[in-house]
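Cross-posting from the chemistry board since nobody answered there.

I work mostly on the small-molecule side, so proteins are not my area. We synthesized zinc ion and want a rough idea of how it might sit in this target. Sequence and SMILES are below. Is it possible to get a predicted 3D structure of the two together?
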Amino acid sequence: MKVAPEYDFFGWVYHSSIGDISGIRDDAPEEAKRAYEEFMRDDPKDEYAYLVPAGEGDKFEIVFNTDLLGEEKAAESIRHYLESTKKITAPDGTVIRYNFHPEGSSIGNALSHIMGHLMERTLVNRIYPDPDDFMRVITWKLGAVARVIYKEAKAELAEETGEALPSDLELRLGISECATINLSETLAEAMADYAANGEKANPLSIKMVETGNRKLEEYGG
Ligand SMILES: [Zn+2]
């Protein structure tokens, strides 16, 4: 989970073929570049909460970021989160700006988001039980398990609806803007969406959570 920047840089980002944000355009305004640098930094300081391994095996602790959710900053952080859950539409109904986090979610869903990351991390660790296995690190870093979950969920969705699905970018924007950063964030946001909206969540969110749960059962419950 990362805090949305004050400056909306999304108009200037490049997307990879699957929709991941892969860079920012050279002609972007300096503010957009700064916001992008700030936002894309892979640093737990940007997260409301994060996972740390706890002892042997599959155990993790969820640590809340006291810089963002401590006494001093909590009110501001919560306001920031809530402002980023609104979808802005034009009078003719077209979407001007997608919500950064799933519509209808609240700061409590920062925890559900982390549970999505925990689901992926647990699966990686069960597939590669040896903590010194290089593949475990690579699989986690690349979000390869989240990618498999996404692909399977998408295939099921296409089969059930019997219609051509929109592009990967559109599909993931249907969950949230944060869900387009990479597929690990898609899974985490799907979990937040599902926790906040239940059966009314985006169909892709529901499918991803179901697929992830099925995989957890496959790999040891
Ligand atoms: Zn995240």
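Reply from a structural biologist on the board:
Welcome over. Reading the output above for you: The beta strands are 13-15, 21-24, 49-53, 60-64, 88-89, 95-97. The pocket of zinc ion is lined by residues 1, 113, 117, 185, 188 (CB under 6 Å). Happy to explain the token format if needed.
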